[in-house]
Design goal:
Elements (H helix, E strand, L loop, with lengths): L9 H11 L4 E2 H6 L5 H13 L3 E6 L3 E6 L2 H12 L17 H18 L1 E3 H7 L11 H15 L3 E2 L6 E4 L3
Antiparallel strand pairs: 1-3, 2-3, 4-6, 5-6
Helix pairs in contact: 5-7
């Protein structure tokens, strides 16, 4: 493919993650979308890794997956993939929280449950979502009061439930 490596900007590589809507990509997947060969792509990814802008994990005997190191960028990509209706910047959890990924996953699971069912009560979430998405909480009530409810109250596309009532997904 010639020497297109100098024509490919770092931003071109990073934008692939957003454009392809995948949280991780293989070297081949990245090379297929760039005007440079597989070897040049690997060299660029390794350069970005050495500079701290890209991370990799080896998979299988020879394979690897890559992802951007920048947390904010990764969160934007993941959120667009997992659920385009939730803006991670509006969640009531801090990215430095050691349970961040699990808590974000619990909120997304509860949100998707509400999307699918259109309405749900607190007990519905506790029965159907809590067992699989405890996010570090031992007690259902604490999980609901400290994690799910406060975050649902911040989402524009959820109508808050009256006391003892049902929460409602109201769309985009």
């Amino acid at each position: 493919m010639g020497n297109g490596g100098s024509q490919v900007q770092d931003s071109d590589i990073f934008s692939l993650f957003r454009d392809i809507n995948e949280p991780v990509l293989t070297t081949s997947e990245i090379a297929d979308k760039l005007p440079i060969g597989q070897r040049a792509t690997l060299n660029r990814l390794q350069k970005l890794e050495n500079e701290g802008d890209m991370q990799k994990k080896k998979v299988g005997a020879k394979g690897a997956v890559w992802w951007p190191s920048n947390l904010e960028f990764r969160l934007q990509v993941y959120d667009a993939i997992l659920n385009p209706h939730i803006d991670v910047r509006n969640l009531n959890i801090h990215p430095d929280d050691k349970m961040y990924d699990q808590r974000r996953g619990a909120i997304i699971a509860a949100f998707e449950y509400l999307q699918k069912n259109e309405t749900a009560s607190r007990s519905d979430f506790m029965k159907d979502i809590f067992p699989r998405y405890k996010a570090g909480y031992e007690k259902k009530r604490a999980w609901w009061e400290k994690l799910i409810r406060p975050n649902f109250e911040n989402l524009e596309n959820i109508q808050n439930a009256p006391r003892g009532g049902k929460w409602k997904y109201i769309g985009d």
